[in-house]
């Protein structure tokens, strides 16, 4: 039997080590935040973030993620969700006068959803199995990391020519792979595939291909004398 974990279905992909601020306003998720804050155990105060598949977003919002509301008007089932998620550890909680919360979380560990339960608690829960922690990156990942970093710098310079390109980057290839996945303007499905990658080397290889593809598209668009907004591929909503 797996672990029972409270989960938030969101329209974004959370990666280990990345910060995710959320505005919580629906009562059932307020209950979850209050329970996490009141927990007295030694373990982390965390819940699962699982990405909603496209087409399952509904008009009535339950949480806001960077201003984009998503919810489950009908009961959420496993079919609504991607099967790999990441826990979000509470780092900061601000309760507002009307009972809503502004929280800051950090991605912690990956898991796979085995089943979803909508009725056992006020909020959604899932039975999950923990995915193995990624061990120290191997020689292949060490060799790929500088190439991926160079591709990321090129991509960001093309995307935002007037802004400063990354100056401080992580030395660890695994941390770098998560940063790239969260930074690049990729589709929801592409980010989800990167989260579910079995190891750092696989993720970095995929990111190198994606960054080179995106940089090539941006370079071609910039060579055409029309506004970039008229030709650029629509950005991911994440």
Average of per-residue pLDDT values: 84
Order of helices and strands: EEHEEEEEEHHHHH
Under CATH, the homologous superfamily of the largest domain reads LON domain-like
Shape: globular
Number of strands: 8
Please estimate the helix content: 25-40%
The number of helical runs is 6
Number of domains: 2
Rg computed from alpha carbons, rounded to a whole number of angstroms:
19 Å
Task: Please indicate the percent range of residues in DSSP E strands (runs of 2 or more).
Answer: 25-35%
Low-confidence stretches: 58-72, 225-238
The order of strands across the largest sheet is: 1-3-6-7-8
Structural class: alpha+beta
Distance between the termini: 33 Å
CATH topology of the largest domain: Archaeosine Trna-guanine Transglycosylase, Chain: A, domain 4
Looking at the overall shape, the CATH architecture of the largest domain is Roll
CATH classification, class level of the largest domain = Mainly Beta
Main sheet summary = 5 strands, mixed, barrel
């Amino acid at each position: 039997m797996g672990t029972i974990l409270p989960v938030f279905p969101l329209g974004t992909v959370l990666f280990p080590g990345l910060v995710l601020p959320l505005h919580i306003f629906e009562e059932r998720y307020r209950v979850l935040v209050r329970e996490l804050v009141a927990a007295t155990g030694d373990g982390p105060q965390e819940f699962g973030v699982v990405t909603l598949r496209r087409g399952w977003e509904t008009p009535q919002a339950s949480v806001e993620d960077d201003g984009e509301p998503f919810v489950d008007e009908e009961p959420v089932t496993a079919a609504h969700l991607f099967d790999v998620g990441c826990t979000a550890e509470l780092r900061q909680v601000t309760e507002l006068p009307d009972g809503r919360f502004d929280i800051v979380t950090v991605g912690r560990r990956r898991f796979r959803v085995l089943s979803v339960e909508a009725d056992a608690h006020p909020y959604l829960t899932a039975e999950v199995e923990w995915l193995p922690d990624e061990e120290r990156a191997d020689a292949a990942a060490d060799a790929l990391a500088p190439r991926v970093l160079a591709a990321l710098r090129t991509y960001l310079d093309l995307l935002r020519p007037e802004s400063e390109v990354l100056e401080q980057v992580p030395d660890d290839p695994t941390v770098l792979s998560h940063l790239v996945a969260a930074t690049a303007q990729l589709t929801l499905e592409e980010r989800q595939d990167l989260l579910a990658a079995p190891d750092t080397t696989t993720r970095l290889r995929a990111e190198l291909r994606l960054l080179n593809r995106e940089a090539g598209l941006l370079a071609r668009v910039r060579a055409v004398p029309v506004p970039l907004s008229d030709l650029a591929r629509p950005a991911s909503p994440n």
